[in-house]
Amino acid sequence: MITITVPAVTEALEQVNAFSARLATTAGLSPCETYRLRLATEELFVNIVRHGYGADRTADQVTIEGDATERGVWLRLIDTAAPFDPFQAAGPADLDLPLKDREPGQLGLYLARHAVDAASHEYARGANRSTIAVFRGQSDADGRIPHGGHDVNRE
Amino acid sequence: MTLDTTLSMRENTAVIALNGDLDAVTAPLFQNQAERAALHRPERLVLDMRELGYLSSAGLRQLVYARQKMDDDVHVVLVGANEQVTQVIRLVGFEQSVTFSDDMPE
Q: Contact B61/A145, CB-based, under 8 Å?
């Protein structure tokens, strides 16, 4: 398992991306699976930074741990913001509306949920622990990003 | 992780080329170009995605923002989006509001 701790600022995304890319490479994920891992990790991280802690705050931190397994990659984001389950958040209500009538935003966690093959959240000892997994060979035949929502078995 | 953006105007068409990764860090660069494009009151907005490797919700948010800065009847064309970028756009239902194209329009 590898771990990284970064300040809760958007600019730390570059380090976060490098972390998920390292796991993807180690696990031998396909380009599509690597994209899905990066996407879900970015969306969860940015949500913590901007909505969990409230704004970019260098005093706060996000710890990310993860590992490559036989099936793929699991990755966990740990923050000490208020308890929040990103996988139970209400989704955008206007997915059928044309762009000119849309509310900007609300798409990040929706994308995160749909990008992963499994996800779980727990709040314990004063911290949110949001865990995602991307497995090899799980993409649907038609190339759509598969739906997540299963519980992650801690591997 | 960088994004290079260029804006060019051709008659009533605004073309924004996106080269690199469009994420939470680089999205303000796209927003800046979209605001410049909107000043020209284009009839068509072309986003050249042939060299765009990555798109997250931050880029989608800016796409909504750009569309809403322009007139209601503006036609949005996305050129050369790769498979994963296209999947993200379709997943959030944007495909009904844009036209995908493999080639740059005339």
A: no
Parse chain A into domains and list their residue ranges: 2-147
Question: Which residues of chain B neighbour A143 with C-beta distances below 8 Å?
Answer: 83, 87
Alpha-carbon torsion A115, A120, A125, A126, what sign? positive
Is there a contact between B45 and B75 (Cβ–Cβ < 8 Å)? yes
Q: Which pTM was predicted? A: 0.91
A127 three-state secondary structure: strand
Q: Is A105 on the interface with B (CB under 8 A)?
A: yes
User: What does the alpha-carbon distance between residue A10 and residue A155 come to, in Å, rounded to a whole number?
Assistant: 29
pLDDT of residue A54: 83
Mean pLDDT for each 10-residue chunk of chain A (155 residues)? 96 97 97 97 96 81 97 97 93 82 83 95 96 84 44 43
Here the tokens at position A24 are 């993807």
Considering only alpha carbons, which residue of chain A is nearest residue B69?
A100
What is the spatial distance between Cα B39 and Cα A22, in angstroms, rounded to a whole number? 42
The CATH number of A2-147, from 3.40.50.300, 1.10.287.3510, 3.30.70.260, 3.30.565.10, is 3.30.565.10
- The CA distance from B72 to the nearest CA of chain A, in Å, is 7
Nearest beta carbon to residue A99 from set B1, B67, B91: B67
- In B1-106, which ranges are continuous DSSP H helix? 27-38, 57-69, 83-91
- For the stretch A22-43, what's the b/e string if a residue is b when 16 or more beta carbons lie within 10 angstroms of its beta carbon? ebbeebebeebbbbbbbbbbbb
Percent of chain B with pLDDT over 90: 83
